[in-house]
Amino acid sequence: MQELIRYGAILALLGLSACGPSVKTQCQEMGEVTQQAMDKYMEAARANIGTSGYQASTEVAIAEALTESATAMAALSIRDRELQAVQADLVSAYQAAATAHTEMAELIPANGSPSTQRRQAIDTIRTDAEAGIPPAIQALTVRCVGL
């Protein structure tokens, strides 16, 4: 009788672990949101092509795209513990980058010609703005390759 209970418990655990999307499906969902994030970013950044590179409206658009991406990533129902950690890292990285782009926008005057001091500050922020995104995407790739 105890063996039946034990096997029943094992089967129940297996059944519970099979509920919900597979790791592969979760990887695909996260990959799709990550690709959409990059597409939104590129679309917003495209406005800077052929300019001085200091456009407050572009920085605001990028910040909005990154905020939307953080929200979309956070909304995913991820069950795999490793992917949950990657999800948290991506959300955090997108939010940090959005904040940085908002800060850059605030440093850019309406005429799009910041002082040398402000340019240096903007360039420093820009260099660090998305630093957390590539490692999180790399972690997603490592977790999901071969699934």
Categorize the overall geometry: elongated
Q: What is the string of SSEs from the N terminus onward?
A: HHHHHH
Structural class: mainly alpha
H/I helix tally: 6
Uncertain runs with pLDDT below 50, 5 residues or more?
1-17
User: Rounded to an integer, what's the Rg over CA atoms?
Assistant: 21 Å
Main sheet: strands, sense, barrel: none
Distance between the termini: 39 Å
**Helical amount:** over 70%
The beta-strand count equals 0
Provide structural commentary.
α2 packs antiparallel against α3 (about 55-75), α2 (about 25-45) runs antiparallel to α6 and α4 (about 80-105) packs antiparallel against α5 (about 115-130). The chain is an all-alpha fold and about 150 residues long. The protein has six helices and no strands. Helices cover about 75% and strands about 0% of the residues. The longest helix has 27 residues, at about 80-105.
Summed up:
With 147 residues, this protein is an all-alpha fold. The chain is built from 6 helices and no strands. 25% of the residues are buried.
Secondary structure elements and their pairing?
Elements: H1 2-18, H2 23-45, H3 56-75, H4 81-107, H5 116-129, H6 133-144
List descriptors.
147 residues; mainly alpha; 6 helices
